[in-house]
Specification:
The chain contains 5 helices and 13 strands. It is an alpha+beta fold. Belongs to the NucS endonuclease family.
C-alpha cells in the first residue's frame, strides 16, 4: 500500500479485510480513523475497562492513539509514543486493535463489534501555532505605536536593508541618534542578539556611525542577556497580550469575540486566560 495522497474512505467495510489494510496504513505512516461500536481495555499505570459504545478511534502518523466518545473534547482513552500497533479479527469476529507502549509498559486494546467507517489519509501540517500575534502583526503594532519602543522614538523605515539582511525597524531616538530594532515573537536567543549585532555593524560600516541596537521580545534566554550586555546592545520586554489588545483597539486585528455579538453588547476583556495557555 503506497502512502495515501487522496483519503481512502470505506463505508460499512468487510471486517475481514481491515486488519491487513490497517497494518499497512500504519506502516506507511498514514492517519487511520475508525468509527463504530467498540469496547476498550487498558492496563499500565492503572487498569480500566470501557463497555461497548459508539466511538471514534484515531491513530495518528506518529503512532499516537486516541479514543473519543460522541461528546467532550478529551479522549476517553489515549496512548502516546506507541511502540507497536497490531490489528486482527478476534475469536468473536471483532476487529481488535492493540497498541503497546514500551516505556512505561502500557497496553491499550480496542475491539470493534461494529465498524461503520474507516478513513485512511496522509495529512500534512507544517503551520506554526502563534499566540496572540505573529511577528509581522507585532511589528505593525510597534510601528504604529513607536512610544512602546521608547518615549520619543520615531520610525524612519519599516524594514531597512543592512548587509545581507533586513532589520525590522529603523528609527531615531529623541536625541536624534539612529536606532536599529529587531523583533522576536518568541524567547530571544543568543542567535537573535548576534543577528541584531550584525545589523548594527553593517550600519556602522555604511554610515560611519554606530547606531543603538534594541532587541524586543516577550522573554530572553540567559545567554541572550549575557551577549546583549557584552556587545553593548539594549533590550525591551513586551507583553504580547497587551500588543494584541492594542491591535484590536486600533483596528489592526479583529477579535473573534466580535463575531455574533449583539448590537450594543460590551466586549469581555481580552485579558482573560485562554484554554490554550
Amino acid at each position: 500500500m503506497a502512502p495515501v495522497n487522496e483519503p481512502l474512505i470505506l463505508e460499512k467495510p468487510d471486517p475481514a479485510a481491515l486488519p491487513d489494510l490497517i497494518r499497512r496504513a500504519i506502516g506507511e505512516r498514514n492517519t487511520v480513523i475508525v468509527i463504530g461500536e467498540c469496547s476498550v481495555e487498558y492496563e499500565g499505570r492503572s487498569t480500566s475497562r470501557l463497555g461497548k459504545g459508539d466511538r471514534v478511534l484515531m491513530i495518528k502518523q506518529d503512532g499516537s492513539v486516541l479514543v473519543h466518545r460522541p461528546t467532550g473534547y478529551s479522549p476517553v482513552n489515549w496512548q502516546p509514543d506507541t511502540s507497536v500497533i497490531e490489528a486482527w479479527i478476534n475469536e468473536r469476529g471483532e476487529l481488535s486493535i492493540l497498541a503497546v507502549r514500551s516505556k512505561p509498559r502500557e497496553v491499550l486494546n480496542i475491539s470493534f463489534s461494529r465498524v461503520d467507517s474507516v478513513i485512511i489519509a496522509r495529512l500534512r501540517d507544517d503551520a506554526e501555532f502563534t499566540m496572540y500575534l505573529d511577528e509581522a502583526e507585532m511589528k505593525r503594532v510597534l510601528v504604529g505605536n513607536p512610544e512602546l519602543i521608547e518615549p520619543g522614538f520615531r520610525v524612519v523605515e519599516d524594514e531597512k536593508r543592512l548587509g545581507s539582511g533586513q532589520a525590522d525597524i529603523y528609527g531615531v531616538d529623541k536625541e536624534g541618534r539612529p536606532v536599529i530594532v529587531e523583533l522576536k515573537r518568541i524567547t530571544a536567543s543568543r542567535d537573535a542578539v548576534l543577528q541584531l549585532y550584525g545589523y548594527v555593524k553593517a550600519y556602522e560600516a555604511t554610515y560611519g556611525k554606530r547606531p543603538r541596537g534594541i532587541l524586543i521580545a516577550p522573554s530572553f534566554s540567559p545567554s541572550a542577556i549575557e551577549t546583549l550586555l557584552r556587545l553593548q546592545l539594549e533590550y525591551r520586554q513586551v507583553d504580547l497580550r497587551e500588543l494584541y489588545r492594542l491591535a484590536v483597539e486600533k483596528g489592526l486585528r479583529r477579535s473573534l469575540l466580535e463575531y455574533g455579538r449583539r448590537p450594543g453588547e460590551r466586549e469581555r476583556g481580552t485579558g482573560e486566560k485562554t484554554r490554550h495557555e
